[in-house]
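Standup notes
- HV: blocked on the assembly model, inputs below
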Amino acid sequence: MTRPSLLDIRDLTVQLGGRPILQNIQLSVAQGEIVSLIGPNGAGKTTLLHVITGLVRPKSGSIHFGGKNITGWPPHRICRMGIACTFQIARPFPEMTAAENVQIGLWFGRRAKEIRRRSRPVGEEARRLLQLVGLEGKEETPGRELTLSEQRRLEVARALATGPRLLLLDEIAAGLSPQAVSHAAQLVRTLRDQGMTVLLIDHFLNLTARVSDRLVALDQGETIAEGPPAQVLHHPEVLSAYLGERPSKHAAGEDR
Amino acid sequence: MSPPSSSRSIALLVVVGLTLVLWPAGGWHTQLVCRVLGFAFLYATVTVAWNLVALSGLISLGHAAYFGLGAYAAALLDRHVGAQAPVTLAAAGLCAAAYGLVVAVAFQRLRAASYALATLASVEIPKVIADNWNSFTLGSLGLVGTRPLPAFSVAGMELDLAHNITAQYYGLMALLALACILHALAIHSRWGWALRAVREDERAAAVLGVNVFATRLGATVLSAALTGLCGGLYAHLMGMTEPALVFNLHISAMPLVFAMLGGRFRWYGPVLGALVLYGADQLFLHPWLPAGHAAIYGLVIMVMLLFLPKGLGS
Amino acid sequence: MWLQLLINTISLGSFYTLVALGFSIIFGVTHTFNLAHGELIVLSGYLAYGLTRFWETPFAFTLPLCMLAMTCLALGLLALFRRLREPYELSSLVFAFGLALVIQNLMLFFFTADYRRIPTSGPPIRLVAHTLITRNQLWLIGLSITATVCVSLMLRKTFLGKALRAVIQERETARLAGIRVEHMNRIAFAVGGALIGLAGPLLGQSAYLHPSGGMEATLIAVVITLFAGAGRIRGLLMGAWLLALLESGTTLWLGSNWRELVSAGILIALLIWKPEGLLARKKSAAEL
């Protein structure tokens, strides 16, 4: 890897209620890369994302972003540094319209300097972002009335509104129809073409093979494999973590 | 939630506002009504203050603590130091704000029922101290003889806040107007959007760059300061401050009732609730049912929670 | 003096157990945050006062009457509580807050703000040289412990009790296991109402009744429930006696007026220590 790394995680350990969730995680994501975190339920993928966004405090270890140590920073500062995320269970602001949801990100997600420099008016920028994720025409719909797939896309638009350099996507393709999944894959590729770095969680391996440059497999709080998709998906430990004893060729397409 | 005010509701507001402004010029039972409505303005201001915290998604059952602290700060300064009204009122606001700061920091991880409960208990601490520090606060007898507000003249007009009920009426109305501006800002400004985001989903708000703690802290301290100021005014207007009065459960209940009745998400809602219910209570119910008239407040809470389509969220 | 402190603590603690038991069963089974718990106890006390005062009912007869009345009232209230919307804990808390105000003002209307007391049933009994135990305290200790033991036996030994405990621990799982949760709600309110009914006359006999005296009892019930967890009888007993000890000690050394500070202070400390407090739930693995 020759590209400079944007996110650098060293020796990260997280405990919740005395129970270890993550142990000695090492992870670095290069500028412009798309990395997928995979692993069975309870592997600690979402916790890892929450530690990066500052929602969960690590017990030890460090997180560097763009050369700055952001370990233990509060979420809003990390957001303004340029890390945005979506939630596994979509949580749009239920009473706000889709456009207002995005505007929250536009207003609060950037540093004051950038907000002053912004050229487009807020309403127009919100519309552009909603269009990007395919929610044109839904601007005035309250968050709670959107479908699950629409809520996920709204979260992506809202995250993009904060002007991130690194985007963390938690299971954006889980439970979606095949068309919606390919739409999501297309979206991720579009973002990468625009220079965005993406770290995504993909428990059901919907997007992994199609978009990722690299895979990181977690199991029970530890990294068990890392590398190009084809290699990691056939790694014996990954197969056994997902399927127990019985490796299968259809693992990549399996859905719950 | 808050539809843009239609022209009809604006017209209604103008009518209500003009009626209130012109009432002292010769309405029905001018003196009595002005006295009652003056206090309705005071409690409406407390309601606005309470709603600042509610807009950030927390139901406080402890605003009597700020109110009582403000009243005691003003009355004690007046008694022991002989300070002038502007000083005592500033102190009232600051004391309550300090307590608000303590509450915001100490209870920062509490939500919903836990927060309501903790604030309810937080009233007991200043109350018991005021009740028992006999050498300083005169205990449960309370402080009497607090001097009334001063008289001063603005642009050649004599404004005697001490004895003239009409002057007090307009003074309190001006205070309420300022509170309303603050309330409108808390709904429609950038800060208002931060409050709204925190109220609807604070984790989502945090990862979108909203400083959740600072937003809540600001709302709580501002709310406490305004409530404390009202408490200070109460001490000067009534001339007496008793623990059982200023730390009363009703002071905590009133803003909740008024805000829910008038609508929490419109800038004029809390004020409307306060004027209607407090006015009705004091002018009609109190003369008819001197003991137990305040049951109406509890009854309104119960009825609204039972029959409003969204319950607490409305 | 130490012996007297011990006796006061035991009688106060037994009473607190009774107060907390009713609250904690209602809260544990139905998740109703009954902030009017204390007001209902005071109301029951006034009822007993009225019975002894105007119809000269002997004290022992007021107890079943109050229990019956409060059980009926509690079941009536359950019908109202059931209409509340989510978030249920907060809604029921605010609703009960309103209810508390209504009850307070009704009592103010019917009984005025004067302090009332149910006459005591006889002179105190001298145990040792300077140690007295009043007949009220005997009533208090005897009845509170009897009630606690009854409830405890019911929860541990009967089928109904096991179903109640299942609902306290895992509401949804209990529902899936075929327990009729609605039915359990009614039973919890009935038992809670009966305990409230029992506590009222005891309060009226051993302390003064005042329309605004209920909030203190509510705070005590909440503190003990928070300390012990809903439905854990041994925890409740321990919490109640600990609180009673702290309060008796405070009364002894600082004066009775500072006593109110104890339960409020402990409540705040407990809430800060356990922020999820009464609402603690297991987080799903997905949320981690």
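- HV (later): unblocked. Residues 279-288 of chain C have pLDDT under 50 and may be disordered. Strands of chain C lie at 125-128, 131-133.
- Next: hand off to the docking folks.
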